Amino acid sequence: MRNRRLRLCGASLLLLLAVLMAPISVVATWVNSEVTDTDRYEQTVSPIARDPAVQDLIINRVTDALVHKIDVRKITDTLADTLADHDAPRFLVDAAGSLDEELKGGLRAGVHYTVARVVTSDAFAKAWDKIHRGAHTAATNVLTGEGGGALEVKGDTITLNVGTVIEELQKQLVGVTLVGAEDIPGADKSIVLAHNDHLSEARDAARWLSVVAPWLPAAVVVLAGLGIWAAPSRRVALMAAGIGIGAMMCVLLIALAVMRQIYLDAVPPAAQSQDAAAALYDTLVRFLRQTILTVLLSALLTVIAGYLYGHGRGAVAVRAAAARGTRTAGQALARTGLKPGAVGQWLRTHRPLTTGVVIGAGILALFLWNYPTPASVALVLLLVVVVLAALGVLAAAAQRSNAD
Fold first, then answer.
1. 121: Cβ contacts below 8 Å, ≥ 6 apart
2. 165-177: per-residue pLDDT in tens?
């Protein structure tokens, strides 16, 4: 009894550590992948340039800056003076001098159309991808606040660099409107997206997580494995680990939703678009949310597997139905004349071993998968079930052949 209590206490402590480290491991792995993997980072930021809300934000901000830069009063005064010098009627001179709003509206429509054509074009999207791939330091900038790039952290402020739009506009607008390349507002290349007084602390935590990220997933697996091995009832410990890790993933999903609302509340009026801010947040964290759902699904499958290996009435019924199915299929296969021979006999004798090897191979495949998704978990599960069913059918066919 003393040994059982010691094993129970040790297993509980190990499983608790694994459960508590699971969300940290997920976040750290995500941060590390965004910083160190150029392809992953490009996949993360690429949809930003194609999101309609972000495009509208960039179009409106650049258009406003350009129209504000143009001295409409100077243009109307010049037009009125020209008409007066040519002895035009007085009412025409007065009308020309009062065309400020009409001229500004026409200029705004023309500039807006040109800017929209640039921002929504495939060339802009491809240029966006090329710049981010060539300057992957933008991901590091979000964590360190250093350097330049499309996404930057300046103090406690996150900004979006739209310099690509400005450069393209210099080519598109010259000769088309009344604005020259030198009049394009270079000082307004950055759009403030959010300001938060705690951004520096979050950045420091992210940097620390990126250092330990490569080791955390392995540590969680080792701790959970040791806890299951040390527990008096390993099946119960397996289910407890799955339930605990699944619960932590649910907490992490809730935390992401809460942080999203906090982020949107911090969007300054200058950003002018809650939709663009929401699209930016959802795009940047979508791979993190995908990883959380993957771990949650894996934990749920672990709990189900632990239950099916138990003595519950439902588990016994499922195993009995599976056994009947494989036995029926094996007998039908044997009647066709197929004889598995020694291989089938070995499979029938070593069913627990082959089952463990197949399940272990599936777990190893997921662990070695570069970036597993819920779809990849479902695919591996399907393959494991199919292989187990095929091995069961071969074993049943060998049993029927021996009986004949």
1. none
2. 566 555 665 554 4
